[in-house]
Amino acid sequence: MENIFFDLSQLKHLGEGALIGKTVRIREPEKVSIGKGTIIDDFTYISGDVEIGCYSHIAPNCTLSCGAGKLYIGNFVGISSGSCIYVSSTDYVRATLDLPSVPRDLKFGGEFADVSISDFVLLGSHSVVLPGSILPVGFATTAQTVVRPRQFEEWTLYGGFECKLIHRRDSRELSSMKDRLLELCD
Predict the structure, then answer these.
(1) Distance separating alpha carbons of residues 142 and 122, to the nearest angstrom
(2) What are phi and psi of 175, to 5 degrees?
(3) What pLDDT does 1 receive?
(4) Is the pTM above the cut of 0.85?
(5) How many CA atoms lie within 13 A of 54 on its CB side?
(6) What distance in Å separates the CA atoms of residue 120 and residue 105, rounded to the nearest whole number?
(7) DSSP state of 73
(8) Residue from 111, 116, 110 nearest 129 by CA
């Protein structure tokens, strides 16, 4: 499938069988690696140093914005429609000048911290992941959850503005297949 914004050959890596929607916008494709079997739906925006594992799915209208850091997304990850992941952000409490339009020598402030999303993570629609967040294996959110950096438990569902623990996920069936599934990524 052709993309209207860039040539797929410009990507740092595009795995076998990966599908990128016609209207996916990748600002710097040479910095983006996409694993095999991954699907990125239309109207998604990706900017910066991004590595996406295999057999993951990014639904329509998502934003993956890196700025100065790196975003790592594991294997078998599902990111629902309208979700946003930020590796950099303005500091809204202090008066800073970190807009991408400002010349580098005049910039100061802002928050920059890599984001890491482990295997088998699910983000509910319109979730927001903020700089510095590290999401463990099997982490999941309900719709409209705001994820800030802190310790999270594996195979657990979180939700809401405060990202509260809601429920431990039953992972027995998936855990028994985990090694076999990850072999597909080799």
Answers:
(1) 9
(2) -60, -35
(3) 64
(4) yes
(5) 11
(6) 41
(7) E
(8) 116
User: What's the pLDDT score for residue 166?
Assistant: 97
Amino acid 93: pLDDT: 87
DSSP classification of residue 126: T
Give the containing element (helix H, strand E) for 177. Answer: helix 172-183
Divide the 186 residues of the chain into consecutive groups of 10 and give the mean pLDDT of each group.
89 97 96 98 97 98 93 98 95 85 88 95 98 98 98 98 97 91 90
Cβ atoms of 114 and 67 closer than 8 Å: no
Q: Write down the CATH superfamily of domain 8-183.
A: Hexapeptide repeat proteins (2.160.10.10)
Q: What are phi and psi of 31, to 5 degrees?
A: -100, 5
CA distances 57 to 9, 53, 93, Å, are: 20, 10, 34
What pLDDT, on a 0 to 100 scale, did the predictor assign at position 68? 81
Residues pairing with 85 in the sheet = 64, 129
Q: Who contacts 105 (Cβ-Cβ below 8 Å, separation ≥6)?
A: none
